[in-house]
Design brief:
With 461 residues, the chain is an alpha+beta fold. Helices cover 38% and strands 23% of the residues. The radius of gyration is 29 Å and the shape is elongated. The structure holds adenosine-5'-triphosphate (ATP) and magnesium ion.
Length: 461
Protein backbone atom coordinates (compact mmCIF):
# COMPACT_ATOMS: atom_id res chain seq x y z
CA UNK A 1 0.00 0.00 0.00
CA UNK A 2 1.11 3.49 -0.83
CA UNK A 3 2.53 5.61 1.99
CA UNK A 4 3.40 9.28 2.24
CA UNK A 5 7.00 10.03 3.10
CA UNK A 6 8.56 13.29 1.99
CA UNK A 7 6.67 15.78 -0.13
CA UNK A 8 8.67 17.39 -2.92
CA UNK A 9 7.86 20.61 -4.73
CA UNK A 10 10.26 23.36 -5.79
CA UNK A 11 7.44 25.85 -5.31
CA UNK A 12 7.35 25.89 -1.50
CA UNK A 13 10.25 26.46 0.85
CA UNK A 14 10.75 23.66 3.35
CA UNK A 15 11.08 24.96 6.90
CA UNK A 16 11.58 21.73 8.79
CA UNK A 17 11.62 18.01 8.22
CA UNK A 18 10.73 16.39 11.52
CA UNK A 19 10.44 12.79 12.52
CA UNK A 20 6.84 12.69 11.36
CA UNK A 21 5.95 16.01 9.80
CA UNK A 22 7.26 18.25 7.03
CA UNK A 23 6.68 21.98 7.34
CA UNK A 24 6.61 24.40 4.42
CA UNK A 25 6.45 28.18 4.32
CA UNK A 26 3.39 29.63 2.64
CA UNK A 27 4.06 33.20 3.80
CA UNK A 28 5.31 35.02 6.91
CA UNK A 29 2.13 34.16 8.80
CA UNK A 30 1.23 30.75 7.43
CA UNK A 31 2.89 27.37 7.57
CA UNK A 32 1.81 24.21 5.77
CA UNK A 33 2.19 21.03 7.81
CA UNK A 34 2.31 17.72 5.96
CA UNK A 35 1.73 14.74 8.24
CA UNK A 36 3.63 11.82 6.71
CA UNK A 37 3.09 8.11 7.32
CA UNK A 38 6.48 7.83 9.02
CA UNK A 39 6.59 6.35 12.47
CA UNK A 40 9.07 7.14 15.19
CA UNK A 41 9.63 5.01 18.23
CA UNK A 42 12.14 5.53 21.00
CA UNK A 43 13.19 8.76 19.21
CA UNK A 44 14.07 6.87 16.05
CA UNK A 45 12.31 6.98 12.69
CA UNK A 46 11.61 3.42 11.55
CA UNK A 47 12.37 2.25 8.03
CA UNK A 48 8.77 1.26 7.44
CA UNK A 49 5.81 3.56 7.19
CA UNK A 50 2.26 2.84 8.32
CA UNK A 51 -0.39 3.29 5.60
CA UNK A 52 -2.98 5.97 6.47
CA UNK A 53 -1.25 6.97 9.72
CA UNK A 54 -0.66 10.56 8.58
CA UNK A 55 -4.25 11.10 7.50
CA UNK A 56 -5.49 9.67 10.80
CA UNK A 57 -3.25 11.94 12.90
CA UNK A 58 -4.11 15.03 10.88
CA UNK A 59 -7.86 14.42 11.09
CA UNK A 60 -7.79 13.69 14.83
CA UNK A 61 -5.79 16.85 15.59
CA UNK A 62 -8.13 18.97 13.49
CA UNK A 63 -11.14 17.47 15.25
CA UNK A 64 -9.78 18.65 18.60
CA UNK A 65 -8.62 22.03 17.31
CA UNK A 66 -12.23 22.80 16.38
CA UNK A 67 -13.44 21.69 19.82
CA UNK A 68 -11.02 23.55 22.11
CA UNK A 69 -11.51 27.07 20.81
CA UNK A 70 -13.16 28.28 24.00
CA UNK A 71 -10.21 27.07 26.09
CA UNK A 72 -7.34 28.41 23.97
CA UNK A 73 -6.74 29.78 20.48
CA UNK A 74 -4.84 27.35 18.30
CA UNK A 75 -2.80 27.41 15.13
CA UNK A 76 -5.23 25.57 12.83
CA UNK A 77 -6.38 27.53 9.78
CA UNK A 78 -7.53 25.20 7.02
CA UNK A 79 -7.60 21.54 5.99
CA UNK A 80 -6.00 21.18 2.55
CA UNK A 81 -5.73 17.44 2.08
CA UNK A 82 -6.22 14.38 4.34
CA UNK A 83 -2.50 14.68 5.22
CA UNK A 84 -2.07 18.45 5.06
CA UNK A 85 -3.21 21.49 7.04
CA UNK A 86 -2.46 25.18 6.96
CA UNK A 87 -1.60 26.63 10.34
CA UNK A 88 -0.55 29.96 11.79
CA UNK A 89 3.18 30.39 12.07
CA UNK A 90 4.07 30.81 15.72
CA UNK A 91 7.21 31.28 17.77
CA UNK A 92 7.37 27.89 19.47
CA UNK A 93 8.01 27.74 23.21
CA UNK A 94 10.56 24.96 23.53
CA UNK A 95 8.80 23.13 26.33
CA UNK A 96 6.55 20.08 26.10
CA UNK A 97 3.69 20.28 28.57
CA UNK A 98 3.16 16.65 29.50
CA UNK A 99 0.02 15.82 31.45
CA UNK A 100 -0.34 12.41 33.08
CA UNK A 101 -3.47 10.83 34.46
CA UNK A 102 -1.95 7.42 35.26
CA UNK A 103 1.34 5.99 36.51
CA UNK A 104 2.67 4.21 33.44
CA UNK A 105 5.32 4.29 30.69
CA UNK A 106 8.63 5.96 31.42
CA UNK A 107 7.29 7.34 34.70
CA UNK A 108 6.42 3.85 35.94
CA UNK A 109 9.82 2.53 34.84
CA UNK A 110 11.51 5.31 36.86
CA UNK A 111 9.20 4.77 39.82
CA UNK A 112 10.00 1.05 39.87
CA UNK A 113 13.68 1.94 40.09
CA UNK A 114 13.03 4.09 43.13
CA UNK A 115 12.67 7.48 41.48
CA UNK A 116 10.09 9.61 43.31
CA UNK A 117 10.42 13.05 41.74
CA UNK A 118 9.42 13.85 38.16
CA UNK A 119 9.83 17.39 36.80
CA UNK A 120 9.42 18.64 40.37
CA UNK A 121 6.32 16.51 41.10
CA UNK A 122 6.82 14.22 44.11
CA UNK A 123 5.16 10.80 44.20
CA UNK A 124 4.55 8.86 47.40
CA UNK A 125 5.61 5.25 47.96
CA UNK A 126 3.37 2.26 47.36
CA UNK A 127 1.79 3.26 44.05
CA UNK A 128 0.89 0.53 41.58
CA UNK A 129 1.52 0.25 37.84
CA UNK A 130 -1.18 1.92 35.72
CA UNK A 131 -2.77 3.42 38.82
CA UNK A 132 -4.88 6.53 38.28
CA UNK A 133 -3.63 9.69 40.01
CA UNK A 134 -6.05 11.61 42.20
CA UNK A 135 -5.59 14.48 39.80
CA UNK A 136 -3.59 14.81 36.57
CA UNK A 137 0.10 15.69 37.00
CA UNK A 138 2.08 18.17 34.92
CA UNK A 139 5.58 16.86 34.15
CA UNK A 140 7.09 19.22 31.57
CA UNK A 141 10.20 18.49 29.52
CA UNK A 142 12.41 20.69 27.41
CA UNK A 143 12.30 20.35 23.62
CA UNK A 144 15.91 19.61 22.72
CA UNK A 145 17.76 16.89 20.82
CA UNK A 146 17.37 14.86 23.98
CA UNK A 147 14.25 16.08 25.80
CA UNK A 148 14.77 16.27 29.57
CA UNK A 149 12.55 16.68 32.58
CA UNK A 150 12.47 20.19 33.96
CA UNK A 151 10.76 21.73 36.96
CA UNK A 152 8.46 24.74 36.49
CA UNK A 153 10.90 26.78 38.57
CA UNK A 154 13.79 25.94 36.21
CA UNK A 155 11.67 26.61 33.12
CA UNK A 156 11.42 30.22 34.27
CA UNK A 157 14.88 30.46 35.80
CA UNK A 158 16.65 29.05 32.72
CA UNK A 159 14.69 31.38 30.46
CA UNK A 160 12.56 28.87 28.50
CA UNK A 161 9.60 31.17 29.07
CA UNK A 162 8.23 33.65 31.63
CA UNK A 163 6.35 32.75 34.82
CA UNK A 164 3.17 34.41 33.54
CA UNK A 165 3.23 32.41 30.29
CA UNK A 166 4.12 29.16 32.03
CA UNK A 167 1.26 29.61 34.49
CA UNK A 168 -1.10 30.15 31.57
CA UNK A 169 0.28 27.10 29.72
CA UNK A 170 -0.17 24.97 32.85
CA UNK A 171 -3.72 26.14 33.40
CA UNK A 172 -4.66 25.54 29.75
CA UNK A 173 -2.95 22.12 29.66
CA UNK A 174 -4.97 20.93 32.66
CA UNK A 175 -8.19 22.24 31.11
CA UNK A 176 -7.44 20.57 27.77
CA UNK A 177 -6.64 17.31 29.52
CA UNK A 178 -9.93 17.46 31.43
CA UNK A 179 -11.85 18.09 28.20
CA UNK A 180 -10.03 15.28 26.37
CA UNK A 181 -10.63 12.90 29.28
CA UNK A 182 -14.36 13.66 29.33
CA UNK A 183 -14.92 13.51 25.57
CA UNK A 184 -12.90 10.30 25.15
CA UNK A 185 -14.53 8.60 28.15
CA UNK A 186 -17.86 8.87 26.32
CA UNK A 187 -16.26 6.94 23.46
CA UNK A 188 -14.89 4.21 25.72
CA UNK A 189 -11.33 5.55 25.67
CA UNK A 190 -9.10 6.57 28.57
CA UNK A 191 -6.80 9.53 27.92
CA UNK A 192 -3.83 8.23 29.90
CA UNK A 193 -1.30 10.95 29.19
CA UNK A 194 -0.49 13.46 26.48
CA UNK A 195 1.68 16.43 25.61
CA UNK A 196 0.88 19.92 24.44
CA UNK A 197 3.06 22.44 22.65
CA UNK A 198 2.49 26.18 22.70
CA UNK A 199 3.71 29.12 20.70
CA UNK A 200 3.44 32.88 20.67
CA UNK A 201 1.59 34.67 17.92
CA UNK A 202 1.87 38.46 18.11
CA UNK A 203 2.68 38.02 21.79
CA UNK A 204 -0.41 35.89 22.37
CA UNK A 205 -0.26 32.30 23.57
CA UNK A 206 -1.69 29.71 21.16
CA UNK A 207 -1.69 25.92 21.03
CA UNK A 208 0.44 24.53 18.19
CA UNK A 209 1.67 21.18 16.83
CA UNK A 210 -0.86 18.36 17.40
CA UNK A 211 -3.43 17.51 20.04
CA UNK A 212 -4.77 14.27 21.53
CA UNK A 213 -3.46 12.06 18.72
CA UNK A 214 -2.24 8.48 19.16
CA UNK A 215 1.31 9.84 18.59
CA UNK A 216 1.15 12.56 21.24
CA UNK A 217 -0.99 10.62 23.71
CA UNK A 218 -1.50 7.28 25.33
CA UNK A 219 -5.01 5.88 24.89
CA UNK A 220 -6.36 2.82 26.69
CA UNK A 221 -9.51 0.89 26.05
CA UNK A 222 -11.74 1.74 29.03
CA UNK A 223 -13.45 -1.65 29.25
CA UNK A 224 -10.18 -3.58 29.30
CA UNK A 225 -8.76 -1.27 32.00
CA UNK A 226 -11.81 -1.79 34.17
CA UNK A 227 -11.41 -5.56 33.78
CA UNK A 228 -7.68 -5.62 34.55
CA UNK A 229 -5.57 -2.47 34.79
CA UNK A 230 -2.40 -4.47 34.17
CA UNK A 231 -3.63 -6.00 30.94
CA UNK A 232 -4.97 -2.99 29.25
CA UNK A 233 -5.50 -2.73 25.47
CA UNK A 234 -3.46 0.15 24.09
CA UNK A 235 -4.97 2.13 21.25
CA UNK A 236 -1.90 4.15 20.35
CA UNK A 237 1.69 3.63 19.19
CA UNK A 238 2.28 1.23 22.09
CA UNK A 239 1.60 -1.73 19.80
CA UNK A 240 4.67 -0.87 17.70
CA UNK A 241 6.80 -0.05 20.76
CA UNK A 242 5.93 -3.40 22.33
CA UNK A 243 6.68 -5.31 19.14
CA UNK A 244 10.09 -3.63 18.92
CA UNK A 245 10.84 -4.40 22.57
CA UNK A 246 9.82 -8.05 22.16
CA UNK A 247 11.85 -8.55 18.98
CA UNK A 248 15.23 -7.03 19.76
CA UNK A 249 18.10 -8.57 17.84
CA UNK A 250 21.40 -8.66 19.78
CA UNK A 251 20.03 -6.00 22.10
CA UNK A 252 19.11 -3.69 19.20
CA UNK A 253 15.67 -2.77 17.88
CA UNK A 254 14.91 -4.35 14.49
CA UNK A 255 15.12 -1.91 11.59
CA UNK A 256 12.19 -3.34 9.68
CA UNK A 257 8.65 -4.19 10.74
CA UNK A 258 7.09 -7.33 9.25
CA UNK A 259 4.11 -6.96 6.90
CA UNK A 260 1.56 -8.21 9.44
CA UNK A 261 2.76 -5.76 12.10
CA UNK A 262 2.46 -2.91 9.59
CA UNK A 263 -1.07 -3.86 8.59
CA UNK A 264 -2.14 -4.40 12.22
CA UNK A 265 -0.70 -1.03 13.17
CA UNK A 266 -2.49 0.63 10.25
CA UNK A 267 -5.76 -1.01 11.31
CA UNK A 268 -5.24 0.26 14.87
CA UNK A 269 -4.74 3.82 13.66
CA UNK A 270 -7.93 3.58 11.59
CA UNK A 271 -9.80 2.09 14.58
CA UNK A 272 -8.86 4.98 16.83
CA UNK A 273 -9.86 7.45 14.08
CA UNK A 274 -13.26 5.79 13.80
CA UNK A 275 -13.74 5.69 17.59
CA UNK A 276 -12.80 9.33 18.14
CA UNK A 277 -14.42 10.89 15.09
CA UNK A 278 -17.34 8.45 15.15
CA UNK A 279 -17.31 8.04 11.40
CA UNK A 280 -15.86 5.62 8.91
CA UNK A 281 -12.36 6.23 7.65
CA UNK A 282 -12.54 6.49 3.88
CA UNK A 283 -9.33 5.69 2.07
CA UNK A 284 -8.68 7.88 -0.92
CA UNK A 285 -8.68 6.20 -4.31
CA UNK A 286 -6.24 8.50 -6.08
CA UNK A 287 -2.48 7.97 -5.99
CA UNK A 288 -1.15 10.12 -3.13
CA UNK A 289 0.93 12.50 -5.24
CA UNK A 290 -1.94 13.09 -7.66
CA UNK A 291 -4.34 13.82 -4.82
CA UNK A 292 -1.93 16.19 -3.10
CA UNK A 293 -1.11 17.94 -6.40
CA UNK A 294 -4.83 18.52 -7.03
CA UNK A 295 -5.45 19.78 -3.51
CA UNK A 296 -2.49 22.16 -3.41
CA UNK A 297 -3.43 23.46 -6.85
CA UNK A 298 -7.12 23.92 -6.00
CA UNK A 299 -6.15 25.85 -2.88
CA UNK A 300 -3.89 28.15 -4.88
CA UNK A 301 -0.76 27.02 -3.03
CA UNK A 302 1.14 25.96 -6.15
CA UNK A 303 0.99 26.51 -9.90
CA UNK A 304 0.28 23.49 -12.09
CA UNK A 305 3.88 23.19 -13.31
CA UNK A 306 7.31 24.76 -13.03
CA UNK A 307 10.30 25.72 -15.12
CA UNK A 308 13.66 26.21 -13.45
CA UNK A 309 16.32 28.16 -15.28
CA UNK A 310 19.74 27.11 -14.04
CA UNK A 311 22.69 29.22 -15.09
CA UNK A 312 26.32 28.20 -14.87
CA UNK A 313 27.41 31.65 -13.76
CA UNK A 314 25.63 34.81 -12.58
CA UNK A 315 27.19 36.47 -15.64
CA UNK A 316 24.40 34.77 -17.63
CA UNK A 317 21.66 36.46 -15.63
CA UNK A 318 20.50 38.80 -18.40
CA UNK A 319 19.97 35.88 -20.79
CA UNK A 320 18.05 34.02 -18.09
CA UNK A 321 15.88 37.03 -17.34
CA UNK A 322 15.00 37.14 -21.04
CA UNK A 323 13.83 33.50 -20.94
CA UNK A 324 11.99 34.22 -17.68
CA UNK A 325 10.13 37.14 -19.28
CA UNK A 326 8.79 34.86 -22.04
CA UNK A 327 7.37 32.52 -19.40
CA UNK A 328 5.51 35.19 -17.48
CA UNK A 329 2.26 35.28 -19.43
CA UNK A 330 1.75 31.52 -19.10
CA UNK A 331 1.14 31.63 -15.32
CA UNK A 332 3.67 28.95 -14.56
CA UNK A 333 6.06 28.80 -11.60
CA UNK A 334 9.47 29.97 -12.84
CA UNK A 335 12.65 30.27 -10.84
CA UNK A 336 16.33 30.98 -11.53
CA UNK A 337 19.31 29.31 -9.91
CA UNK A 338 23.10 29.30 -10.24
CA UNK A 339 25.16 26.10 -10.26
CA UNK A 340 28.45 25.62 -12.03
CA UNK A 341 28.90 22.02 -13.21
CA UNK A 342 32.65 22.49 -13.10
CA UNK A 343 32.99 24.45 -9.88
CA UNK A 344 30.24 23.21 -7.56
CA UNK A 345 28.62 20.36 -9.45
CA UNK A 346 28.44 18.39 -6.20
CA UNK A 347 25.20 20.28 -5.50
CA UNK A 348 23.50 18.79 -8.55
CA UNK A 349 22.26 15.47 -7.05
CA UNK A 350 20.73 17.28 -4.04
CA UNK A 351 19.02 19.91 -6.16
CA UNK A 352 17.73 17.46 -8.76
CA UNK A 353 16.24 15.26 -5.99
CA UNK A 354 13.42 17.79 -5.53
CA UNK A 355 12.68 17.99 -9.28
CA UNK A 356 12.84 14.22 -9.77
CA UNK A 357 10.30 13.61 -7.01
CA UNK A 358 8.12 16.68 -7.38
CA UNK A 359 4.36 16.19 -7.33
CA UNK A 360 3.90 18.55 -10.28
CA UNK A 361 5.36 18.45 -13.81
CA UNK A 362 8.48 20.48 -14.43
CA UNK A 363 11.31 21.20 -16.83
CA UNK A 364 14.85 22.53 -16.35
CA UNK A 365 16.54 24.96 -18.71
CA UNK A 366 20.34 24.93 -18.56
CA UNK A 367 22.06 28.17 -19.43
CA UNK A 368 25.77 27.69 -20.01
CA UNK A 369 27.72 28.60 -23.10
CA UNK A 370 31.38 27.92 -23.42
CA UNK A 371 32.09 24.24 -22.74
CA UNK A 372 28.59 23.56 -21.47
CA UNK A 373 29.08 20.91 -18.78
CA UNK A 374 25.96 22.04 -16.95
CA UNK A 375 23.34 20.73 -19.39
CA UNK A 376 24.95 17.31 -19.51
CA UNK A 377 25.52 17.03 -15.77
CA UNK A 378 21.92 18.04 -15.11
CA UNK A 379 20.47 15.77 -17.81
CA UNK A 380 22.45 12.83 -16.42
CA UNK A 381 20.79 13.37 -13.02
CA UNK A 382 17.31 14.49 -14.01
CA UNK A 383 14.19 12.40 -14.54
CA UNK A 384 12.42 15.40 -16.11
CA UNK A 385 13.13 17.21 -19.42
CA UNK A 386 16.32 19.24 -19.72
CA UNK A 387 16.73 21.86 -22.42
CA UNK A 388 19.99 23.71 -23.08
CA UNK A 389 19.72 27.34 -23.99
CA UNK A 390 23.34 28.49 -24.28
CA UNK A 391 23.89 32.27 -24.19
CA UNK A 392 26.12 33.00 -27.17
CA UNK A 393 27.64 36.47 -27.57
CA UNK A 394 27.70 36.30 -31.35
CA UNK A 395 27.83 33.95 -34.33
CA UNK A 396 31.52 33.13 -33.80
CA UNK A 397 30.94 32.25 -30.16
CA UNK A 398 28.07 30.03 -31.34
CA UNK A 399 30.12 28.27 -34.01
CA UNK A 400 33.06 27.62 -31.71
CA UNK A 401 31.07 26.43 -28.69
CA UNK A 402 27.81 24.91 -29.90
CA UNK A 403 29.18 21.38 -29.92
CA UNK A 404 29.49 21.30 -26.14
CA UNK A 405 25.71 21.65 -25.99
CA UNK A 406 24.89 19.34 -28.88
CA UNK A 407 27.21 16.41 -28.27
CA UNK A 408 26.10 14.57 -25.14
CA UNK A 409 27.41 11.36 -23.59
CA UNK A 410 25.12 8.32 -23.51
CA UNK A 411 22.10 8.46 -21.17
CA UNK A 412 22.35 12.24 -21.04
CA UNK A 413 19.26 13.35 -22.94
CA UNK A 414 19.69 17.12 -23.16
CA UNK A 415 18.11 18.91 -26.09
CA UNK A 416 19.25 22.32 -27.26
CA UNK A 417 17.30 25.39 -28.35
CA UNK A 418 19.32 28.50 -29.12
CA UNK A 419 16.73 31.27 -29.19
CA UNK A 420 15.56 32.38 -25.72
CA UNK A 421 11.87 32.71 -26.61
CA UNK A 422 11.87 29.33 -28.37
CA UNK A 423 13.60 27.70 -25.42
CA UNK A 424 10.85 29.08 -23.16
CA UNK A 425 8.15 27.73 -25.50
CA UNK A 426 9.86 24.35 -25.81
CA UNK A 427 10.07 24.09 -22.01
CA UNK A 428 6.40 25.02 -21.64
CA UNK A 429 5.38 22.42 -24.23
CA UNK A 430 7.42 19.74 -22.48
CA UNK A 431 5.15 20.09 -19.43
CA UNK A 432 2.28 18.69 -21.47
CA UNK A 433 -0.31 20.53 -19.38
CA UNK A 434 -3.86 20.50 -20.80
CA UNK A 435 -4.26 24.19 -19.87
CA UNK A 436 -1.15 25.12 -21.88
CA UNK A 437 -2.01 22.84 -24.80
CA UNK A 438 -5.24 24.80 -25.20
CA UNK A 439 -3.30 28.08 -25.24
CA UNK A 440 -0.78 26.76 -27.76
CA UNK A 441 -3.53 25.41 -30.05
CA UNK A 442 -5.08 28.90 -30.09
CA UNK A 443 -1.69 30.51 -30.73
CA UNK A 444 -1.10 28.17 -33.67
CA UNK A 445 -4.58 28.90 -35.08
CA UNK A 446 -3.99 32.65 -34.75
CA UNK A 447 -0.74 32.44 -36.68
CA UNK A 448 -2.49 30.52 -39.47
CA UNK A 449 -5.30 33.06 -39.59
CA UNK A 450 -2.82 35.94 -39.68
CA UNK A 451 -0.94 34.33 -42.58
CA UNK A 452 -4.12 33.80 -44.58
CA UNK A 453 -5.13 37.40 -43.87
CA UNK A 454 -1.73 38.60 -45.11
CA UNK A 455 -2.04 36.40 -48.19
CA UNK A 456 -5.57 37.71 -48.88
CA UNK A 457 -4.36 41.28 -48.61
CA UNK A 458 -1.41 40.80 -50.90
CA UNK A 459 -2.70 38.53 -53.64
CA UNK A 460 -4.13 40.27 -56.71
CA UNK A 461 -7.06 37.86 -57.35
N1 LIG B 1 2.23 26.59 14.35
C1 LIG B 1 3.52 26.28 14.43
N2 LIG B 1 4.46 27.25 14.28
C2 LIG B 1 5.79 26.92 14.34
N3 LIG B 1 6.26 25.67 14.55
C3 LIG B 1 5.35 24.67 14.70
C4 LIG B 1 3.95 24.93 14.65
N4 LIG B 1 3.30 23.75 14.84
C5 LIG B 1 4.25 22.81 15.00
N5 LIG B 1 5.49 23.35 14.93
C6 LIG B 1 6.77 22.63 15.00
O1 LIG B 1 6.86 21.81 13.84
C7 LIG B 1 7.53 20.58 14.12
C8 LIG B 1 6.62 19.41 13.75
O2 LIG B 1 7.35 18.36 13.22
P1 LIG B 1 7.61 16.98 13.98
O3 LIG B 1 6.72 16.87 15.17
O4 LIG B 1 7.62 15.90 12.97
O5 LIG B 1 9.06 17.26 14.47
P2 LIG B 1 9.89 16.36 15.47
O6 LIG B 1 10.81 15.47 14.73
O7 LIG B 1 8.97 15.80 16.49
O8 LIG B 1 10.79 17.45 16.04
P3 LIG B 1 10.56 18.24 17.33
O9 LIG B 1 11.39 17.50 18.30
O10 LIG B 1 11.04 19.62 16.98
O11 LIG B 1 9.07 18.19 17.64
C9 LIG B 1 7.84 20.62 15.62
O12 LIG B 1 9.16 21.07 15.80
C10 LIG B 1 6.86 21.66 16.16
O13 LIG B 1 7.32 22.32 17.32
MG1 LIG C 1 7.09 16.59 17.43
Amino acid sequence: MECLDKLYTPQLRKLHSGKVRESFKINEKTRMIVVSDRVSSFDNVLNNMIPNKGAVLNAISNYWFAMIKNIVDNHFLKAIDPNISLVQEAQPIKVEMIVRGYLTGSMWRGYQQGKREFSGVKLKDGLRQNQKFNQPLLTPTTKEDQDREITPKDIVQDGWTSKAILDKMSEISIKLFALGTKVLAEKGIILVDTKYEFGLKNGKLILIDEIHTPDSSRFWDKASYEKNPLQVDSMDKEYIRQWLLNNKIDGKFPEILPEDVISDASRKYIDIYEKILEKKFVESKLPLNTRIYNNLLNNGLIKDGYIIIIMGSPADLEHCKKIHSYLEKYDIYADMRVISAHKNGERIPKITEVYNNSIEPGCVLAVAGRSNGLGGALAANLAIPLINCPPFKDKIDLMVNINSSLMMPSKTPASTVIDASLAALAALRSLNLPRLKEIFRCEIENIKTELIKADDELKSH
